[in-house]
Write a structure and sequence with these properties.
102 residues, mainly alpha, two-stranded parallel sheet, 55% helix, AB_hydrolase_fold
């Protein structure tokens, strides 16, 4: 809920979104599946999850750990779907550490 409040606050500072652009973005999400493309990528991959995420449950990380063993998954405790907002410092630390080790 706190993440949602923060997102609403951030969004309220912006102009109203263009409905056509939003519709096109949703269409892309509905019609695009990049899981197969991931298998041909030869770059490091970091996956960051929130332990309280109801859109992408943390159990998905274990499934993808098996499917993509060369990738790294991190679960941020007490974070929901937007840990880059709710847990900015921790998220950035994880990201910087990942980049440093490339």
């Amino acid at each position: 809920m706190q993440d949602l409040k923060k997102l609403k606050k951030i969004i309220s500072y912006e102009d109203k979104p263009n409905k056509k652009i939003l519709k096109n973005g949703l269409e892309i999400l509905l019609s695009t599946d990049l899981r197969l493309e991931k298998n041909i990528l030869k770059i490091p991959l970091l996956r960051i999850y929130g332990s309280l995420d109801s859109l992408v449950p943390k159990k998905i990380s274990k499934i993808l750990d098996k499917k993509w063993p060369e990738s790294i998954s991190i679960i941020i405790e007490k974070a929901a779907h937007t840990p880059f907002i709710s847990h900015k410092e921790q998220f950035c630390s994880i990201l910087l550490e990942f980049i440093k080790n490339l």
